Each structure stands twice: as structure tokens, then as C-alpha cells.
Amino acid sequence: MNERAAPATVKAFEERLLEVADSLPKRLRQCATFVAANQDRIAVSTVAEMAEGAGVQPSAFMRFCQIMGFSGFSEMQRLFRDSYVGGWPDYATRLDHLREKGEESGIGLLAEFVEAGRASLESLLKTIDPQALDEAVATLARANMIHIAGLRRSFPVASYLAYAFEKMNVPAMLHSAVGKLDNQSVIRAGDAVLAITFSPYSAETVELVENARARGIPAVVLTDTAVSSLRKSGAMLITVSEVDFGAFRSLSATLCVAIMLAVATGTRRVD
After folding, report:
1. Where does the sequence pass through the membrane (predicted)?
2. Where are the alpha helices (DSSP H) in 10-146?
3. Nearest to 175 by CA among 133, 142, 219, 228
4. Mean pLDDT over all residues of the chain?
């Protein structure tokens, strides 16, 4: 028997996840990180599929469910199925239908990624925290200089933000770590950091954010999991989940948030 009652809502689930994540042993922490970044999969996956995604044995994933307060995976899955019934996009069914049809042509793959992007955007609108967005925009709008950081998969988003800010005459600098030069010395009091990093997190981006926060410089981070280690630094996290197809994830939802941040910052900024 579990000593603690199981979370009754998805929000309560997320709060419990944040509470226990740091104290979990390695394998169970892998479960927590994977679940935080893939909540959309819980309602439609088996425990074996979730365990495989987390890189652990099914028994370890079952233990994680119990630590979260559930009797097992089925009870945890029921919470997400009940919460999303009638509202959560049934992308899995649509993607399965395309696979059954054997759509392997260019247009078939395009349809797969369009569907994944649509699901990501619908999920974004239902899960984004409006208060977090408002606080992020306010922070960026009053910054003397916005320092943008995002490497590897995140780089397209970072470079787009740098381009958008440049066109709106908003002072911004793209930190690309070219030549192993992090340029952290140019981040000054009155500036702000805007970082993009997804699990597994870029060590260079994490270091830049943590160093900035240690100096009292505000940081806004677009990321994919609420249990990101960057939460400890006091950074403002905006969590964005991208639906994948064939283990490939587009940046549909992330770019949507990025353009919103750029436009809202440019609109609110007073030179």
C-alpha cells in the first residue's frame, strides 16, 4: 500500500513529480525525466513502451508509478485518459492509420509530420502556463540586451529569435559557442538570458543559464520537462512538448512559442 494518495489531477501529478524527482535513484529519475517530457504518451502507451522510452526495465517503471502514489501503471494511465477524454488530440490513431496504409512516399511522410505538428500545437494551447508567458515577456521587454542560447536541435529556434529581434531593433546577441567561445563575459546587469534546451540538455546552455542566475541575471528557458535541473537556478521555465513521429521531433510548438515571445517583446518594449 502507498502511504500517500495518488494525484487526482494532472496538475497535482506534475507537482508530485517536481517534489520527488531530485531524490530518486538513477533509474527512477530516468522514468521521471521521460514522463515529464512525454505526458502525451501515457494515455496511449503500454508500460513496456514507457519503460523502453525511459531506458529502464518495466519493473523499474512500475516502481516509479508506485512512488508517485499509484498502485501501478494502469492507475496512473487512467488519470491521463480521464483528464484528456474528449479533448486530447487522438494523434496516435491517425498516425497508426497512415502506417497501415503504407504511406512511405514523400507526401505520406509529410502527412505524418503535419499530423504530429498539429497535435503538438493543440497540446501547447491546452498545457501552456499563461502566467509564465506574461512573466517571460515582461522580463525580456525590460532587458537592456537579450542573450539567446540554444545548441544542436535547439539552434534553429535560437537563430530565428536572433533574426526576429534584429528585425524589430531589439538588442539581442546569439551565443552559438563557435570555437568553444561562450562569450559569457558580455552578459551584464540589466540584461536577460533566453535559452532553449531539451532533454538531454546541452551542457553549454545549462552552464550559461546557471552562471547568469548566480549573478542575479534573469533567465527565460524554453524546455520540454518540468523536472529540468534549471528549475533549481530560479530560471523561468516555459515547458513545451513536441509530439514525435518515428523518434523524430519537429519544432512546431517550440517555434510557435518563440515567435510569440519575439512579437510580444517587441510590442511591449519601450526604447
Report:
1. none
2. 10-21, 26-37, 39-42, 47-54, 58-67, 73-84, 91-100, 106-127, 130-141
3. 219
4. 81
Q: Which is it for the CA torsion 233, 238, 244, 250, positive or negative?
A: negative
Question: Which residue did the predictor score with more confidence, 3 or 234?
Answer: 234
Residue 55 has pLDDT above 70, yes or no: yes
Dihedral angle computed from the Cα positions of residues 123, 128, 130 and 133, in that order, rounded to the nearest 10 degrees: -120
Domain check: are 102 and 173 in the same one?
Answer: no
Structural domain for 163, as ranges: 130-268
Q: Are residues 250 and 144 in the same domain?
A: yes
Rounded mean pLDDT of 215-221?
92
Backbone angles phi, psi at 56, to 5 degrees: -130, 170
Which residues touch 36 (CB under 8 Å, ≥6 apart)?
Answer: 14, 17, 21, 224, 225, 226, 227
Whether residues 145 and 120 share a domain: the answer is no
Q: Are residues 175 and 100 in the same domain?
A: no
